[in-house]
Amino acid sequence: MTMTNEHLPHGPRGASRGGDLQNIREDVKVGIPRGDGHEETRVVAVTAETPDGKRISWTSVGVFWRADDGTWRRGKNVATIRSKELAAVADALMKLARRPDSAASPQRPPGARAPEHRESSGRQPERPLQPPTVDDGFDEKEIF
């Protein structure tokens, strides 16, 4: 699907994507639903223009999430793959997909995540950082 200018995650044509690049087009090549349907992994072909008029393109892979108003928003973690790297990355992914241990793992049923997993605003609530506690039955004093 081609995203229209009004629905580009970074604004309409001409909006800066960072630096001096001007975003021209983003084509969602695939959106794969995740979990309860409020997230999806997307592969997006992006075209932008440099200040001197040169068009450049790349592919991004990342998780998008659906906001309360129904719009899809890009998550924080996105992998950007340069066009010249795409064939090698695709080949590596296909090799991984053919491995016997790459069979699909079962998905969690809808609602299985804790309500605080993702707030509707896309931001986690502020919580004090606590070090993880591990009780593995191991006593450090035994070896020293």
Major β-sheet profile:
4 strands, antiparallel
Structural class: mainly beta
Low-confidence stretches: 1-17, 140-144
Number of helices: 1
Global shape: flat
The fold-level CATH name of the domain at 1-99 is: Nuclear Transport Factor 2, Chain: A
3D structure, described in words:
The chain has 144 residues and is mainly beta. It has a domain at 1-99: Nuclear Transport Factor 2, Chain: A (Roll), CATH 3.10.450. The chain has one helix and four strands. It has a four-stranded antiparallel sheet, with no helix packed on it. The longest helix has 13 residues, at 86-98. Mean pLDDT is 75; it is low at 1-17 and 140-144.
Outline the secondary-structure elements.
Blueprint: E1 22-34, E2 39-49, E3 55-66, E4 72-82, H1 86-98
Antiparallel strand pairs: 1-2, 2-3, 3-4
TL;DR of this structure?
The protein has 144 residues and is mainly β. It is built from one helix and four strands; from the N terminus they run ββββα. It is flat.
Notable traits:
about 140 residues; mainly beta; Nuclear Transport Factor 2, Chain: A; 1 helix; about 10% helix; flat; disordered N terminus; disordered C terminus
